[in-house]
Design goal:
- By secondary structure, the protein is of the alpha+beta class.
- Helices cover 49% and strands 13% of the residues.
- The chain is built from 25 helices and 19 strands.
- The strands form 4 sheets. Strands 9, 10, 11, 12, 13, 14, 15, 18 and 19 form a 9-stranded mixed β-sheet that branches. Strands 1, 2, 5, 6, 7 and 8 form a 6-stranded mixed β-sheet that branches. It has a two-stranded antiparallel sheet with strand order 3-4.
- Helix 21 runs parallel beside helix 24.
- The longest helix is centred in the last third of the chain and has 55 residues.
Length: 728
């Protein structure tokens, strides 16, 4: 076992970059190659069918099932030409991943095998709904569930399989996935926002939801990964002392990308382009061996599908480059964790960004109207938005000194904040004026003047306005973006609906439209002021201030999840037709169950590693020290031997104390786990794991990390942080 670590280190250290296979020509020439997009449809389907599909995508019209056979035939022909032999309904169950069951295109007519793919198979398939997380909606003996084609997200070919994006619902119609409620939330915010846009432009017929995700991740050499059971089974290191050098020199962020990593990134980009994923940005992140991908923003449903696909591709391609991708929010203690910032915005079908300042007073009033409604929605539902991003993994990251705190607040910047404050000041004009970017001359030859944005950015804010969009920075790197976007769309849709009712009422009482809008906007600015915070979200002072403002400050994931079933949240979900009460309750049961299982697995793995790796190695080194002390007594007089052995004896006692603590804490953690496992209520069990099991993980880790500092490095069997983080 001891040699495994050094063999792995040697193997990792000697690896060379694996050059990716990049198609000839520009990226644009093979972009979308593996996707059955509109251009491919025009080749394989008749014009009327293509138009019907476009209407379904752009206008939300229902696609006639009679067209399904033609679409299926054309889709199969294209897929077979792409080398596909199988098809699958590709869906997103409540596992934070994707699911697929492959069936071949072959059919048997009694005499011959033929290729066949019917419209019925395209549109709908049956799956086992009881074997996926369902929160009690389906019993084990009630297995039937359905996947149904989502026409708004194009099919694509991976290897030899045609993948058809679908929703996933139970036999009784409840959603068991992320896509179904995401699509519903997009429809809800579209209707509510379009209605409000009618005050400003009657030509607006649709409002689209846009998403731009920023995928952070760590890379670890696969040889080192293979000899870390905690990484293999939990995706994070349950032990490991900080390296002498971590990220404190800030030399990794935006630094030169290591050759092996560049090759991996290029491979991911190339494959991503084939699937129509517009990856734009790649760079080193703050922590060593931490990196990021980010695409050009797109329609939210498609962007989310692309994020799910890119995470799958990253894991697959990493093995080709002898890496393992870590998407856990906090795989290493003492260095930055990984988030997935969700850049969220709304835009009209007339090409106007609703969070983009306008060129005249009317456009600016529209901008302020939508901005303030978002503030109000976030303020009233800050607990729900936090619940949408809270998981066992993200709990380790949020609140740490490198990520947004586990308190939702909104950063607007000085200029927007001043405009809002001026609007509610009766002594100022109702005119809304937004300044252009400021210029700064650096006085350096050959360097042009720089355009400065009107406000700085605040990286400590979990929900920040960044000029033409909001950046939901609290989302975790392993999460399905849909969880956050569903909650955000739902509360904004509900708020815009309430806003329109209020404005319409004032208009019915004789007030001018603009006057009515401004009156409600001013009211919202006053009410939502507690959610606005432009300062340092990392400081303890903010935590105290947030409590005074009435914001949700709870950091316990199992308890935060309660926000989903509050009377206010349930009303929003039901009024906006996103979830039924039964669906929300079921999802909470899934969240509590997953939380308990995550901590349960980590607890078991830590006990195994402590007993099978750490204690034997520490005891072995302790035995060597004891033998040394005994030999000292044979060579030197008693007084001199005692003096020479003083430090060794202290070290022996120190090791013994840590071993004893590890054994006692491991036994206590096992008992706490048994008690928690005996609880039948999902919420109570999750809270027990949080309160009574999770703390032992930290105390045991501290003792193990202390041993790592004193035990002979040659005997330590597990790769250390300096190796995991700095071998690239």
């Amino acid at each position: 076992m001891i040699s495994l670590r050094f063999d792995a280190v040697k193997e990792a250290f000697n690896r060379k970059a694996v050059q990716p296979e990049v198609p000839e020509g520009c990226s644009s020439e093979y972009f979308g190659k593996n996707v059955f997009d509109i251009e491919k449809m025009k080749k394989y389907l008749n014009a009327d069918t293509v138009q019907a599909i476009q209407d379904s995508i752009n206008n939300g019209t229902t696609l006639d099932r009679n067209l399904a056979d033609e679409v299926a035939a054309g889709m199969m022909k294209w897929a077979i030409e792409m080398g596909a032999t199988h098809y699958t309904h590709w869906f997103q169950p409540l596992t934070e991943g994707t699911a697929e069951k492959h069936d071949s295109f072959i059919d048997y007519d009694g005499h011959n095998v033929i290729e066949n793919f019917s419209g019925k198979l395209l549109v709908q398939q049956e799956s086992d709904a009881s074997s996926f997380p369902n929160g009690g909606i389906r019993n084990t003996f009630e297995a039937r569930g359905y996947t149904a084609w989502d026409t708004s997200s194009p099919a694509f070919v991976v290897d030899d399989t045609l993948c058809i994006p679908t929703i996933f619902i139970s036999y009784t119609g409840e959603s068991l996935d992320y896509k179904t409620p995401l699509l519903k939330s997009i429809q809800a915010v579209n209707k509510a926002a379009t209605d409000v846009c009618g005050y400003f432009d009657s030509n607006v017929k649709r409002v689209n939801t846009y998403l731009g995700w920023e995928q952070e991740y760590f890379l670890v050499d696969e040889s080192l990964y293979a000899v870390r059971p905690d990484l293999m089974l939990t995706d994070r290191t349950l032990m490991g002392h900080e390296s002498a050098k971590n990220q404190q020199l800030e030399d990794h962020y935006f630094g030169a990308i290591p050759a092996r990593v560049t090759a991996f990134m290029k491979d991911v980009e190339t494959e991503g382009y084939k699937f129509g994923i517009p990856l734009k940005t790649r760079h080193n992140e703050v922590a060593p061996n931490q990196f990021e991908f980010a695409p050009i923003f797109g329609e939210a449903n498609l962007a989310n599908d692309q994020n799910q696909l890119i995470m799958t591709l990253m894991k697959k391609i990493a093995s080709k480059h002898h890496f393992r991708v870590l998407l856990h929010e906090k795989p290493f203690a003492g260095v930055n964790g990984s988030g997935k910032h969700n850049n969220w915005s709304l835009g009209t079908d007339t090409g106007i960004g609703l969070f983009t300042p306008g060129k005249n007073e009317k456009e600016n009033l529209q901008f302020i109207t939508f901005l303030v409604n978002v503030l109000m929605a976030v303020y009233k539902n800050n607990a729900l938005l936090k619940a949408s991003v809270m998981t066992a993994q993200n709990e380790h990251r949020l609140g740490a000194n490198e990520a947004p705190p586990a308190i939702i607040s909104v950063f607007l910047g000085s200029q927007i904040s001043q405009i809002l404050d001026n609007l509610v000041d009766d002594t100022t004009s109702d005119e809304i004026t937004l300044k252009d970017k400021r210029h700064i001359c650096l006085g350096i030859a050959n360097v042009p003047e720089v355009l400065l944005d009107n406000t700085d950015r605040n990286r400590t804010s979990p929900f920040a306005f960044t000029g033409n969009r909001f950046e939901f920075r609290a989302v975790g790197s392993s999460a399905n973006c849909a969880s956050a976007i569903i909650a955000l769309n739902s509360v904004v849709a509900a708020q815009l609906t309430e806003f329109k009712k209020s404005v319409d009422y004032l208009i019915s009482q004789g007030k001018r439209k603009e006057e009515a809008i401004l009156e409600i906007v001013k009211q919202y600015i006053k009410e939502s002021k507690p959610i606005r915070f432009d300062g340092n979200g990392y400081g303890d002072a903010w935590k105290e201030e947030a409590k005074k403002r009435g914001l949700d400050c709870n950091g316990s994931t199992p308890e935060v999840i309660d926000a989903y079933t509050s009377e206010q949240s349930l009303k929003i979900f039901e009024d906006m037709h996103i979830f039924t009460k039964k669906e929300v309750q079921a999802r909470n049961e899934v969240k509590w169950e997953v939380y308990s299982k995550k901590i349960q697995i980590e607890s078991r793995v830590l006990c195994d590693m402590a007993m099978n790796h750490i204690i034997p190695v520490a005891s072995g080194y302790q035995s060597l020290l004891l033998e040394k002390v005994a030999r000292m007594k044979l060579v030197f007089p008693a007084d001199e031997a005692a003096k020479l052995s003083e430090q060794d004896l202290d070290l022996i006692k120190n090791i013994a104390a840590h071993i004893q603590l590890i054994k006692c804490e491991s036994d206590a953690m096992t008992e706490a786990r048994k008690i928690a496992n005996g609880l039948t209520d999902g919420r109570t069990k999750a809270i027990a794991y949080h309160n009574n099991v999770l703390p032992y993980l930290n105390s045991i880790r501290n003792a193990i990390d202390a041993l790592e500092l004193v035990v002979d490095d040659g005997m330590w069997s597990l790769p250390k942080y300096r190796e995991l983080l700095f071998i690239r």
